Amino acid sequence: MKKITYLFNGRFPTEKAHGGQIAKMCEAFASQGIAVELVVPHRRNTIREDAPTYYGIKKNFAIKHVWAIDPMLYIPERLANAIQTITSSVSFLWYLMRHQSEVWYARDHASLLLLSYFGRPYIAELHDYRLARPRWWMRRILKKARFVILNSEGTRSLLADHYPDITKAFVAPNGVDLAFFDIPETREQARDILHLPQDKIIIGYVGRLEVAGKDKGVSMLKEAFESMKLRDRAELLLVTSVSYKQVPLNLRAIDIAVIPFPGVRHAKTTSPIKLFQYMAAGKAIVVADGPDPEQLARKLDELVLNPERIKTLGIKAHEDARNHTWDQRAKHILNRIQS
């Protein structure tokens, strides 16, 4: 394979996790000797840095911007999103007609549906499938794709329930850039920079508060912290609005990193990038079993009571992260689609 053209119908760069995932995968594909083009629409953006600077990636793939109408500041958000998506799709169609690529690639539904109608060989990457019932457009995307890449076994299981005739799918969990989290600051230095206490065990969460308008479990984490018996020994740090490049420093300051899944269905389908970031940063990781704050509080108390176990779990997590890099994910995908 010589060339991949990746379509993304959304704002780029973005502070949302999917933007980093797209950037890192384009970089990883390009590092395997593939010519990569990422095609994105023009959007209003409060991020002033270019993508390589914002994400800390190599400039080894091309980023092309196409025309789109972005009325987000002037009309209701839902209508603005629809106009953005439709006009971006028109530009993508024009791009498809004027350019050649060995393989086209996308993960947003609008781009995938567009590709399904125009006879181009494409790869569909799907994350966190949560549709309550089968949809005709999803069936079409899956049926027409050359391959379907899924982020988790849970996503594959739910897709198989709705579309049992789809056989071209395989799982490739998300990954991490180990070098990005290998920063020179120590735990103590990071706490000084961030004005955090040195004498507390810091329990932290790094990520957004909501996804698709739904709480990501941060409220439950707050409740759990308030319910801890050993709360006086700990500090809760919620990092929900820092730039991408500030994530490693914040993780360096944290002792226990939490993934507060808000519900069973979300836990089944997700492959959270933050999990692999926590691992790369060498954190002891606590994953909530569900939306029960009391149960999460007990887990946190157990670790706060045992600082040596926090260190042991962190070392083990860092070692495990070596098996989950973006380059390894790219190699796995390329091996499957070229076999």
Automatic annotation (TrEMBL):
Gene3D superfamilies according to UniProt: Glycogen Phosphorylase B
A Pfam family this chain is assigned to: Glyco_transf_4
Q: Where is the Glycosyltransferase subfamily 4-like N-terminal domain?
A: 23-179
What molecular function terms (GO) are annotated for this protein? glycosyltransferase activity
Instruction: Please indicate which superkingdom the organism of origin belongs to.
Output: Bacteria
* Name of the protein in its database record: Glycosyltransferase subfamily 4-like N-terminal domain-containing protein
What InterPro entries does the database record attribute to this sequence?
Answer: Glyco_trans_4-like_N, Glycosyltransferase_grp1
Identify the SUPFAM superfamilies for this entry.
UDP-Glycosyltransferase/glycogen phosphorylase
